[in-house]
Structures are given as structure tokens and as C-alpha cells.
Write a structure and sequence with these properties.
The complex is a heterodimer of chains A (about 325) and B (about 375).
Chain A (H helix, E strand, L loop, with lengths): L7 H22 L8 H24 L7 H18 L4 H23 L4 H21 L1 H4 L11 E3 L2 E3 L2 H24 L1 H11 L1 H6 L4 H27 L9 H14 L4 H17 L7 H15 L3 H17 L1
Antiparallel strand pairs in A: 1-2
Helix pairs in contact in A: 1-7, 2-7, 2-10, 2-11, 2-12, 3-4, 3-5, 3-10, 4-10, 7-8, 11-12
Chain B lengths: L1 H25 L3 E7 L6 H20 L8 E7 L4 H14 L4 E3 L4 H14 L3 E3 L16 E3 L4 H14 L4 E7 L2 H13 L6 E8 L7 H8 L5 E5 L3 H12 L6 E3 L6 H6 L8 E5 L14 H15 L5 H20 L3 H9 L4 E2 L4 E2 L14 E7 L2 E4 L2
Parallel strand pairs in B: 1-2, 1-3, 3-4, 4-5, 6-7, 6-8, 8-9
Antiparallel strand pairs in B: 10-13, 11-12, 13-14
The chains are: A mainly alpha (about 325), B alpha/beta (about 375).
Chain lengths: ~325, ~375
Amino acid sequence: MTMPLPEKNQTVTHIFLFALFVAVLPWVFGLSRATSYYTDVMVFVAIHSIIAAGLSLLLGYAGQISLGQAAFYGVGAYASGILTTRLGLSPWVGIMAGMALAAGLAYGVGLPALRLKGHYLAMATLGFGMIVYIVFNEFIGLTGGPSGFGEIPPIHFFGMEISSTLGFYYLVWTFALVVLWISLNIVHSRPGRALRAIHDSEKAAAGVGIDITRAKVQIFVVSGVFGALAGSLYAHFVTFINPPPFDIFFSIKVLMMVVIGGIGSIWGAYLGAALLTFLPEWLAFLEDFDVLAYGIILLAIVMFSPDGLVGLGSRVMGRIRNIKY
Amino acid sequence: MKRIGFVLAMVGVCAVTLLGSAQAADKEPYRIGALFAVTGPASFLGEPERNTAEMVKDMINASGGINGHPIELFVYDTEANATKTVVAAKKLINRDRVLAIIGPSTSGTSMAVVPIVNKAEVPMISCGASLKIGAPVEKRKWVFKVVPGDDLAVRLMYDYMKKQGIKKAAIMSVSTGYGISGRGQLNKLAPEYGIEIVADETYGPKESDLTAQLTKIRGTGADAIINWSIGPPQVVVTRNWKQLGIPIPLYQSYGFGSKRNIKLAGGAAEGVICPVSRIVIANRLPDEDPHSPVVKRYKALYEEKFKGEVSVFGGHAWDAMFQLAAALKAVGPDRARIRDYLETLQGFVGNNSIFNRSPTDHVGLGKDAYVMVVVKDGDWAILE
């Protein structure tokens, strides 16, 4: 399933070109009134990309499924929200605390859960997600319960308050690009190769001396940390949180982003996040039938291109090359 | 000559028609945005709201618009999802350049939009229920609300209980946002009415038997039971109350205000007392009630057009649309002046009640937004 890996220098060039593209995008959107709000949509694309990148590492490279990513997303959001509003701490402290808490949770849950396989692992992570969701709803004194809480302060960067959409756009995409770079580095490193070995055959991987449990837990922790980072950024952008955005359906949506984009490709996770976030906007003109069209498009992608958008893209490129020669 | 006269007449008619149509086209439409949870878990709110808003828009446009300007309504489905609502609100403000926003339907999505409209300086009339949407006013400069808060329902209920000589009450509430909010107000306001809370039981939204809680309450010497929940538990508690033959009255929240609940309780609901919105008892409203014309008209129009029973929720959209229409008629397409008009709105008769807003109250409703009723012979009877 995994894609052939490009040279390392090539990766840096790709990220650089992608960063340039992202940097000019708001100015392109700004040309027309009809597309000016796409900058807001792109903020959510970045947030979704960060959490999808984490799951892509786990699912695409280590072959471990998780239906509990929304829990990490929520942990990040609530940690940031509570620490900044109740204790008046800096959002940066909130973000770090959220990531640390998610790392601890991922370690604690991952150690027993990642010994499970297939459906059992899916069930375990699903249960974890539901427990965290219940905590958000029931620990009213801490989380505000079902009504949530607001007035989460914006992030300050070198004394500059980042509260405009454009400012936040550049901040959140900087994070998304750093996450992309880290993820691609993990893939190219020794742990990344170990993960792909586990993905293909756990027995063979163990045979060549890979500590399977450790490798799996490590990558689960990374995916949790990315999820928490995305959640914290969400909290500081929307400035209000309540439990619904962190429910099981969001976990499934993240899984869809990874699958639609292309399992086994970090770039695919970004593509999938972009498609699933933008598609409802493009289909809005269908009014009551938009949900139907949304379902049909996703179904068609999975049916006709099981390796997702990245697979579709590389096949189209291949055809074009064949025509040339 | 005759011919020339005819031709001249024709030309004249054409010219007048052309001029007339040109004049109508000159009047730019007033753009209004709406955020409703048309699909998803809160569609029971969003769908009647969307239907009502569209209906009101058609009514206004059919009668010549507002000072000749037709209304253009942009409705987006929020699915009760905060992320979707935030994007849709930005879309309404940046792309559709709306003058004002109606909705969102739920409290959570309304709270997510509050900072956006305050920053963009776009007036918004929320259809959410939470008290936090409209207060504190200093932080809600551009936000208004049409749904009466739980505090008003509790006050009306306590008023009535006090008159009945009730001194000790036992509270039961469901552990959802609805129940938590009601429970908070019940506990907070009880001392003001000289009522002592002798039991405070909570239960889950899927509870199918509440005899344990009721048995416990029976031993506390309470004069009345107050249950604050929505959905199946309010029917369960009614049945259990009858089955156990508890001799003290059962009060329910305004969530009980649907004929369906009386039917589901199968006769056990006789004697249940609750506050309800006027739309629930539209047919029984006396003609001298000042709300009577609005409520009856809305009910007739809605049920005629959509062939379904009218709901309290659609009434919120009706009130919001007509308040906005009144503002546009008075001050024209200017966001700041629309806001000022909404803030000082006086004597507006809506489905919810008569609105009297002020710079310190962005809701503008009193406890007469509800009416106390009792279930009698399988229907509602108004209590004096």
C-alpha cells in the first residue's frame, strides 16, 4: 500500500513549494468576494490536516486503526481553554500542556490497546473516545458540561495579538507545515522504516529485531500529540468550546480524510483534509441534496481509487507520461 | 385619429409599466442571513425555523417588500456543528454581505458565533435558549435573543406554587444541558419565593424507570414535585407518579408542552401542571389576550403551508424575522442603526410574548412569555 519514497532533498523542495502555494492562497481568494471566506475554510483545512497527519502515520505506516482521535483533539482544546480562561496562563502554555496531557493519555491507553488487533483495537480506541467525550459532558465544574465555555483568549506571537483570520491563517499553516515536515521525516527515518515493516508483517519485523510494541506506542503518542495541537488551535480560533465537535463522528471524519486522501501518504492526509473540508462548501448550491452528493463522491473515490486521491493522481500522471513517449 | 389615440394609449401603458418595473428593479434587495440546524441532531429546531423564515420572507415580498425593497434570504444549514456554523457565519458576512443574521438554532452554535458578529459588527438575533447568549450585555453588543430563558419559566412556576401555598419542593432533572440549566435556576430562585428544596435528584436521558427517585421524594415531606427534562423521561416520570399514587402535584418544565406527551402518558398526565408557550395553546387563547392575533395567524399560516403541526421553535424564527423587518422598515439598510433599533425595541408583539428591550436587556421578555396550564381531560386548560 505504501508509496515509493522520494529522495530527501526532493521532500524539502516539495514542502517549500507547498508553503509558497499556501502563502499566496489568501491573496488569490481575496480577489473575489465569492471566495474571500475560503481563507476561513483553509484555517480549518490546516487544523484538520494536523490531526489527519497523525492518524496517517498510525494507520498508513504502522497499520494501526484508531477511532479515538477526536478525544486527543478535545483534550488539546479543553486543556488550552481551561488553562487560559481559568488560570490566565498564556495560550502557548495551554498548547504545550494539551500536547503533554495527550501524550500521557496516548501512552497509557496505547500500551494495552495496541496489543489488540483489527476490530479489537478499533473497539478499544472507540471506547477511549467515548469515555473522554463523557468526561467533557459530565465534569461540569471543570468543562462547563454540555453548555461549554467561551472567551478563550487569542494567541499572542511576539507581543502581537493574532485575532484576525489572516493572521491566524499564517500561524496555523506554519504549524501544519512543521507537522508535515516532522511527519515526512519520521517516515524517512529508522522508526518510519520499522513501522512499515510492522505494517507488512509483524513477525518479520520482530525477526529483524524491531521492538514492535514500543514502535507502535511511540507513533500512537505522536498521533495524540498532533491531535491535541489541532484541538488547541481550534479552541483559540473559535474561542468557544463545547463537547459536540469532539464526538465519535469527528473521529470517523478524520479517518475518512486519511482514507480518501490515500492511506500510506502524508500528503494524502493533507489532500483528504482539504477535500472533506471544502466539499460541503462546493456542494452547498445543491441545497437539500448536498449530503447525498457528498456521499456519492466519497463512495466513488473509495470504489474507483482505493488508494485515494494520491493514488488517483499518480495514475493520471502515469497515463500522461505514457502518452508522451 | 382613433388609431393614433389607440397607439398613444398603448405606448403610454407600456411606458408606465416599464417605468414601474424599472422602479421596482431600482430597489435593491435587503440581504438577510440565517443559520439553522436544518439537519443533524437539532433538526427538530432548525427545520421549522427554516420553513418559517422562508414563509415570512415570501409573505413580506408578496406584499411589496420593505419600503419597496424585497428581502433576499440566505439560509445555511449548521447541522448544529460549531465548525460548520463558524464557516457559514463568515460566509454570510464576507461573501453574502448580509445586513443581519437570524439564528443559530442551538445555544452551543450561537455561542460560537457571538465573537464573530461582535467583531464584524453585524446584528444577530439568536434562536438559542441559553441565558449566556444574551448576557452580559457589555460583551453581547450585537447579539439579541428571542427565546425566553429558563429563569422566566421558573419564576412563573414558583409564583403559581407560592399562591398554592407550596413551601417544600422536590426537584428531579435530567443530566443534559436542558436539565442542568433548569436545575440551576430552580435552586437559585427558590429562596426568593420562600420555597425550600427538600430533594434534588438527577437521572440520565435514557432512564426508563424513575420509581426509585420518586419513592425517595415521597419520604421527604415535599408539597410538590418539579421535573425538568425533555423527551422520554418526562413521560416516564408522569407514569411512575400515577402508578405510585403519590398524592402531591407534579410540575413539569415547558418541555412537556406538546400534545404528544399527553398521549404518550396514556391518561397518567391528568393533573400535571406546567408552563407552556402560547403557541401550544393557540386555540384556547381568549381573544382579549394581546398575543392572540399573532399566535393564531402564525399557526394557521404554518399548518396550511407545511401540512404539519406548528411548533414553538418555528415561532422563534417568526419573531426574529418580523423584528428585523420592523428595524429595516424604520432605519433602512444600516447595520449599526438596525442594532440600535433592536436594542430599544418596545411593545413588539411576537409568538413568545411582548418584547421590551433595553441597553441592559437584549432579550426583553418577562415571565408572561409562558402561561401556566394543567392537563385536564386529555388537553391543556389555562390556570388563572
